[in-house]
Amino acid sequence: MTGWEASRGWRPSRPSATHSPPRAGALTAAAPAANFFLPMLDLKFIREHPEQVVRALETRGGAESVQRLLALDADRRRRVTAVEASKALRNKVSEEIAQAKRRGEHPSEEMARMRRLGDEIKALDTAIKGLEGEVESLLLQLPNLPHPSVPVGGEEANQEVRRWGTPRRFAFDPRPHWEVGERLGILDFERAAKLAKSRFSVLWGMGARLERALSQFMLDLHIREHGYREVWVPHLVNAETMVGTGQLPKFEEQLFKTVEPEGGRPLYLIPTAEVPVTCLHGGEILNERELPKRYVAFTPCYRREAGAAGQDTRGMIRQHQFDKVELVKVVTPATSYDELESMLTDAEEVLKRLELPYRVVLLATGDTGFQSAKTYDLDVWLPGQGKYREISSCSNCESFQARRAEIRYRPAAGGKAVFVHTLNGSGLAVGRTLIAILENFQEADGSVTIPQALRPYLDGLERIARAGS
RNA sequence: GGAGGGGUGGCCGAGCGGUUGAAGGCGCCGGUCUUGAAAACCGGAAUCCCGCAAGGGAUCGGGGGUUCAAAUCCCUCCCCCUCCGCCA
Prior knowledge:
Layout: H1 43-48, H2 50-57, H3 65-102, H4 108-141, E1 159-164, H5 177-184, E2 187-188, H6 189-195, E3 202-203, H7 206-224, E4 229-231, E5 236-237, H8 239-245, E6 268-269, H9 274-278, E7 285-287, E8 293-302, E9 321-331, H10 336-353, E10 358-362, E11 374-382, E12 387-396, H11 400-405, E13 408-410, E14 418-419, E15 421-429, H12 430-440, E16 448-449, E17 463-464
Parallel strand pairs: 4-8, 7-13
Antiparallel strand pairs: 1-10, 2-3, 5-6, 8-9, 9-15, 10-11, 11-12, 12-15, 13-14, 16-17
The protein binds one RNA strand through residues 5-17, 32-36, 77, 80-81, 83-85, 87-88, 90-91, 93-99, 101-102, 107-108, 110-115, 117-118, 265, 284-287, 410, 413-417.
């Protein structure tokens, strides 16, 4: 119990639910959801197809807890049946007592019996509540089930989908971005470490302007040409919000957390705008006519990078703080995979306009993030490193986050509310885009050419050179 | 920080401790009327859990308590709002 289950704010007290319609041959069946608590996978589905779930989770982790989950659930249901029989009796007798009293009688024997029964009920309810808590916490730790089109296996099973652009041929040895940036006087890691610690950076002059120009360029592209609506959101959010998108309870060690005096509820710095933007509609029932919703948000992202010690220690690749333009979609289940493809295209367009070579990779089950059913990574070419590096990740989370955050819609035809599907993708990570520009557009003299598409955002400037930057 | 007010169904909003799962309005779905639509009128619909089913249970911000019985009484926590003070 970490405290986030104490109060569920915007969440209905007893989350209701319906599930997403079945997708052909997929793992999510058309069974009604069994979520008397926050679900992530549909408990009823797990109960009815345990072997299928175990198989699906084998390369994703969590398969081991399925049996324990089912045992707890069976126990829970046994006790619920028992306690409900007692409650039915109590309700019946209470009604009889009420009638007797109206007749002027005082059925003290029944009243005493019901008092004893009430104690038994209380004990059983307590036990049930304990079991529910255990089931819930196990359920919250299970990752999403992969989509059937996702290759099974670890990182080595990832599939390259396509490449765009040809890595430039250099007449000299291309330098890594930290050298390019430091020589230009626009990147400063030493001072960042002085101010904070390692894995932070300071951008001077044209570096800072480039970061801002890139952000603006990306936002404008998505707003003006791709139909996204811009949102500005809190960078500190409460625990419920983090649970909603799946960061909590499992990945708390990756988050920066505030300490509030006198047991106040802590807030968490967002690791991505996906968190607040997706949860914008937490606890709401949307109208199908409002869907799909397409949002774009620019925010800084804060990550502890626990467990990444020694990786990418130089440069700006892996930072505790970085800017990102994030795309989020809230859609109906029927359209979510089409929306994933178009989101990917929207992200790719940023790289194309910036003339940065990249490849698209479909992640295998073991490499796909916790919340996601299917993820494409966009890897940009970094000549300074001689390899492709992740610059965007586009995921369809299906109903995983919708269940946790209680985001549903009412079908246009009327009827029960149904969980939406949520998607998110970087469009793009701004810091890494800046890196890519420094490395791909560096010249022999140490200057950096500015891609055409960006020049309008930099007063038409064509290159960044050392002087006075 | 000080002082008050409030959290009820998709939304707004009523609700003497027992026949209230919850009035009324809006919105929604179906129908009548209409060339069509609107208006008007009629009708329908909360959610989750257990159960093969019949049926039963639970839910009025969260948790606890009083009671034979709680949306209604008590305690506690969370959140929102208003006024004053401070302030980017």
